[in-house]
Recover the amino acids of this structure.
């Protein structure tokens, strides 16, 4: 994917959709680099207030008049179309327009970039890698999809040579990147509105991996079905990955995949991969090439997070960090927003929020909650995200949600979609399951839970929509009643 270069520092860049977490982070980074930055979003928000406080000119609402001071470049999110008045105004007057993905690609050309991709875990893994590099004193730049607890932001310009970015497969956006190194956490079919089939979905990961720069390292999950298909494609096709300067090929009996290039490292649970993890006594046992082991105690719970940490350790090893130092660095990670995030406790009711919106993520989050709070009654509150995903993965959603002993299902959060009839009320009853309760929206779910929870209960909210507002509202309701 061809993209223009960034204009020189001091130029004026205008962001349409600046209120999104990804766009706001890039805007702050550019501001730190000495650019004049402005932007607009459909409505005001606390995040826009933070940008104003940082010295960035922000408009509430989209209007061609926002371009009165002519910018040198306009950057738009993929959700903003050419009919947006600012985009249309820029195109009519010859102002260059760049998609966010293209702009991120241009930003990453300025540093040695590590891109983290995958259906699940890319926000946590990219944030954990950022945290580890910070604790190793390498001061990376980063642009990820969630707020790091330790920094209070999702994007920052560091003084070091490395940059960490979250690489999103939606709309094939990550094909705008040409990173030095890549982590692929997994590749499980998603975004049916974009990808016609699992094969189509896996193919875009193959294409992305081939865009890694010569001499880089690919760290990939070796026992995930989709990632394994990507790996097999890379191994068996001609020139699957850019070679290092020597173009060496080595035999790796641990990988179980035959001959692989020296810039490929596998990780997972299965014995025989380069890097593996097994449960320990309240911790995790990481095993690296040659059989070396380290005991790792993470501050974030769940097997899925242990796998995320293992991927980070494998990448740090490729960067020359010792096994022991890499393990200590991932132990310092304290988490990110909306990933098993404790929102508070009121009258003995603990509220946790999570971004889980794919069946595998719902299952992993529920298993983590049940294991973490085995003696407390769990309420799982789930809001499906997009009609296309709900329809395509209906059976998987029903099976995953059934793990919860007490279930509340909200209506689908359509986001960019409207229901074309592909998701029926009977479908929603199947997901809710026998004994599951239904609530139309956040307000009605809040009222339902407020009337049924007891001291000692745990309420877990899951989804990528406005369900994130439910936890704080429930806590406020319980406080007002105490």
């Amino acid at each position: 994917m061809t993209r223009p270069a960034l204009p020189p520092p001091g130029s004026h860049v205008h962001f349409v959709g600046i209120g999104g977490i990804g766009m706001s982070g890039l805007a702050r980074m550019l501001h730190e680099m000495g650019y004049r930055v402005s932007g607009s979003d459909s409505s005001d928000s606390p995040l826009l207030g933070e940008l104003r406080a940082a010295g960035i000119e922000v408009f509430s609402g989209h209007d061609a008049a926002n371009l009165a001071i002519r910018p040198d470049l306009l950057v738009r999110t993929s959700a903003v179309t050419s009919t947006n008045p600012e985009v249309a105004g820029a195109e009519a007057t010859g102002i260059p327009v760049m998609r966010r993905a293209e702009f991120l690609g241009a930003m990453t050309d300025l540093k040695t970039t590590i891109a983290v991709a995958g259906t699940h875990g890319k926000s946590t893994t990219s944030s954990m890698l950022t945290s580890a590099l910070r604790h190793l004193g390498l001061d990376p730049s980063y642009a990820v999809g969630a707020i790091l607890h330790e920094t209070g932001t999702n994007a920052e310009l560091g003084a070091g040579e490395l940059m960490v970015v979250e690489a999103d497969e939606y709309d094939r956006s990550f094909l705008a990147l040409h990173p030095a190194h890549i982590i692929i956490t997994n590749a499980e079919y998603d975004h049916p509105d974009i990808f016609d089939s699992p094969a189509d979905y896996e193919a875009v990961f193959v294409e992305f991996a081939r865009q890694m720069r010569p001499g880089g390292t690919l760290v990939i999950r070796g026992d995930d079905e989709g990632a394994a298909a990507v790996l097999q494609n890379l191994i068996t096709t001609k020139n699957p990955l850019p070679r290092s300067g020597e173009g060496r090929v080595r035999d790796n009996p641990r990988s179980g995949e035959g001959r692989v290039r020296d810039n490929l490292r596998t990780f997972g649970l299965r014995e025989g991969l380069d890097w593996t993890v097994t449960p320990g006594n309240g911790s995790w046992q990481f095993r690296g090439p040659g059989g070396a082991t380290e005991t790792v105690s993470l501050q974030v719970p769940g097997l899925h997070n242990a796998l995320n940490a293992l991927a980070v350790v494998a990448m740090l090893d490729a960067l020359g960090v010792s096994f022991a130092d890499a393990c200590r660095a991932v132990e310092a990670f304290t988490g990110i927003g909306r990933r098993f995030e404790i929102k508070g406790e009121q009258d003995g009711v603990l509220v946790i929020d999570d971004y889980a919106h794919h069946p595998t993520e719902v299952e992993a989050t529920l298993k983590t909650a049940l294991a973490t709070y085995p003696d407390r009654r769990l309420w799982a509150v789930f809001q499906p995200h997009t009609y296309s995903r709900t329809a395509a993965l209906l059976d998987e959603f029903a099976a995953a949600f059934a793990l919860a002993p007490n279930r509340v299902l909200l209506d689908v959060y359509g986001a960019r979609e409207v229901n074309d009839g592909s998701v029926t009320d009977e479908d929603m009853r199947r997901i809710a399951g026998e004994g599951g309760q239904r609530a139309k929206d956040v307000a009605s779910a809040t009222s339902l839970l407020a009337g049924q929870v007891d001291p000692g209960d745990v309420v877990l909210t899951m989804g990528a929509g406005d369900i994130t507002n439910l936890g704080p509202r429930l806590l406020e309701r319980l406080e007002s009643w105490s």
User: Anything to note?
Assistant: The chain has three domains: 12-99, 111-331, 341-481.
